[in-house]
Amino acid sequence: MELTLLGTGAPDGLPRPSCPCAACATARGPWARAATALLIDDALLLDLTPGAVFAAARAGHSLGAVRQVLLTHPHDGPAVELPPALPPAGRVPDGQVLTLISGHRVRAVPMDAPGTGYEVSSPDGERLLYLPPGAAPAGLDGRAERPYDLVVGDVVGRPDAVARLRAVGAVGPATEVIAVHLDHDAPPGAALDRRLAAAGARAVPDGTTLVVGEYPVVPDVPRRVLVTGGARSGKSVEAERRLETFPEVVYVATGGRREGDPEWAARVGLHRERRPGAWRTEETCEVAELLGADGPPLLVDCLSLWLTDAMDRVDAWEDARWREGGEKALRARVAELVAAVRGTRRQVVLVTNEVGAGVVPATVAGRRFRDELGRLNAAVAAECEEVLLVVAGQAVVLRG
């Protein structure tokens, strides 16, 4: 089964002619995207968009052989003129199956938002799933019979759609996931590629033709990632995005609770609201133990609070205790954590603070913490396949 993406953008396309935003300003050349539409084996058109005939011609195809046009979502704005020789566009009711004269079978998949998803099976048995913008499959009960060969959907806007499909086995290790309906919230260029690769997905330019069922080069998701940055830099958001397409994640909160501190409680509350509901939280500093156990991916936020706890345990803040064994005890605990990061079989994203680029702390204890955190960050970074520095919400790749 051959799939040609006539467009990969949001319904209004990108750039929008009257929009002065940065996303539209950079959406040029291969990053310019028409509204998403899929042409399957020149016989089935999913979503009729303005300029579909010309888009097909630029990709080396014709719409003359199309036998069925199906819509996935309500189309706002003026009606799209139906090109000559194309059959009328329609939608299949949820759950019903349509068999085309070409031998393709199309099943309408219910969504949790306005629109219809379509599962398309070729005469040879390849299967793809196409999801409308802003929607995820609804009512997924039980395990899928087998994974789809290809999933095309709104990965940036609805990463939980991929998580739901992974949870039931509809997206497997060899499933190719293509991001479409790309809009202003999608970062440009390499930043988009990096975010999608963390989800095991990718984006392609308009006009790309894919062979469904052909062995795809699935993006390699790194097992260990360290995300560092200053206060309010966006490092926690960047870390959370790297795991948002996974159905189950353990969020390791090393800060714990602080009784009688409403400001800290507000910070913790904001983090919890941002996380997917399926994530489980562990409030603990026993990170090495979790890294050594089997289980779903871990998000550890953050190493600077873990180090604070570690220094508290050995009373490393006091000079006398530091000289009498505190330094040695802290080194041992740090070495245990670093060894656990090196040996873990779980996927893990670790967050830490970058504190060595500012004013030198005025106290001995403050300088000791700064130095020890710098050493800890360097040791953990050495064990990670990917290291990111987040500045002003923008992630810079240091390794990987």
Layout of helices and strands:
Layout: E1 2-7, H1 22-26, E2 37-40, E3 44-46, H2 52-58, E4 68-70, E5 89-90, E6 97-99, E7 105-110, E8 116-121, E9 127-130, E10 150-153, H3 159-167, E11 176-179, H4 189-198, E12 201-202, E13 209-211, E14 224-229, H5 235-241, E15 250-253, H6 262-274, E16 280-283, H7 287-292, E17 298-301, H8 303-313, H9 319-343, E18 348-353, H10 364-382, E19 386-391, E20 394-399
Parallel strand pairs: 3-4, 4-5, 9-10, 10-11, 11-12, 14-18, 14-19, 15-16, 15-17, 17-18
Antiparallel strand pairs: 1-2, 1-13, 2-3, 6-7, 7-8, 8-9, 19-20
Task: Spell out the key features of this protein.
seven-stranded mixed β-sheet, 400 residues, 10 helices, 22% strand, alpha/beta
Strand content: 15-25%
By DSSP, the count of extended strands is 20
Instruction: Tell me roughly what share of residues is in helical segments.
Output: 25-40%
The number of helices is 10
Shape, per Cα inertia axes: elongated
The helix/strand order is: EHEEHEEEEEEEHEHEEEHEHEHEHHEHEE
First and last CA, distance:
34 Å
- Characterize the biggest β-sheet: 7 strands, mixed
Which whole number gives the mean pLDDT?
Answer: 90
Give, in spatial order, the strands making up the sheet with the most strands.
6-7-8-9-10-11-12
- Assembly context of the chains: single chain
**Which parts are unreliable, with pLDDT below 50 for 5 consecutive residues or more?**
none
Sheet/helix structural class: alpha/beta
